[in-house]
Amino acid sequence: MTYRALELLNLPPDELSFLLDIGCGSGLSGEILDEEGYIWAGVDIAPSMLEVALEREVEGDLFLQDIGQGFGFRPGSFDGAISISVLQWLLNAETSHPTSSPPHRLSRFFTTLHSALRNPSRAVFQFYPSSDDQIQLITSAAQKAGFGGGVVVDYPNSNKARKVFLVLFVGGGGGGAGHQQVPEGLQGEEREDGKVMFERRREREAKREKGGKRKGVKDKDWILKKKELYRQRGKEGVPRDSKFTGRKRRAVF
Amino acid sequence: MVRLITHNLLACHVKNCTSNNFPLAFKDLGDTSLPAEQPDMIDDEFLQKLHHVLLEIHVEEGSMVCPNCNHVYPISNGIPNMLLAEHEIG
Ligand SMILES: [Zn+2]
């Protein structure tokens, strides 16, 4: 997904680009950014994930940040931004305080991101909207903040491979022609077993992200992230992290 | 991992803190390898020092303070904590 996001960013090929990874987590995308020769900074709300990123020795500079509070980056700092599987979290109200409402958080987020990006440039978000209303809420907040662009759906007809990207433009969005053209989604052919024919690039991505073997959805990173989020929101009784966190449990009879 | 070159990106984002809100001041940085004034001649020695200060100094533990509203952004493990309290959110 990181590779696809980079493709959608459509950065000039021979220039050094400085990117922002929004919700960088444990540095999975960051490793790819390092490999691909980008300079980057990452923000995440979960200290435990950032610590994993440090252990991974990613090159990017890391910040502990709640993106719904807005960014503290100076104007025009970044040549582009990517975000993998994060945006949907902004739709949850954290407390009853007015600054915690999803519209307020979305507005803070998009407004401060828009100003942190160079003109022209792009921001690409892969995310998991649970309804068309959510997509609507997000895109209208982005528009109000001054972004152009739109939603790109890859493999729209596949349950498994369908991926939703929000591709936002600052100014013309770069990419030469100077006009805002939202990229086309990828169209895949579904095989009989229901698995989409991925391009080679995507398989490579899967391998790199998963170290060759498929990880379960609820792996340790995922659990740590989730627990951290609950703690951030002041939820009580979140189990502490231990070496047993996310370990496979055998069925006991 | 707060290199000075990254620190240079940051501005305070506390509510209504919109002017004189950067650069955030490091507390207790203690590096004095660069002269206070820009030297008349930019020589290799100066460039090396500049490289050192911009790219090689990593602030691991400490804090940054907004020159305008005095909000303190702690740095722990080299990671600046940019979180705001509810009343500070714009
Ligand atoms: Zn301030």
TrEMBL record, chain A:
This is 18S rRNA (guanine(1575)-N(7))-methyltransferase Bud23 C-terminal domain-containing protein. It comes from Piloderma croceum (strain F 1598). Belongs to the class I-like SAM-binding methyltransferase superfamily. BUD23/WBSCR22 family. GO terms for molecular function: rRNA (guanine) methyltransferase activity. One of its GO terms (cellular component) is cytoplasm. It is found in: Cytoplasm; Nucleus. Residues 20-93 form the Methyltransferase type domain. Its main location: cytoplasm. Gene3D superfamilies: Vaccinia Virus protein VP39. The keyword Lipid metabolism does not apply.
Automatic annotation (TrEMBL), chain B:
It comes from the Eukaryota. Pfam families: Trm112p. One of its GO terms (biological process) is tRNA methylation. One of its GO terms (molecular function) is protein heterodimerization activity. InterPro entries: Trm112 (IPR039127), Trm112-like (IPR005651). Belongs to the TRM112 family. This is Trm112p-domain-containing protein. It comes from Piloderma croceum (strain F 1598).
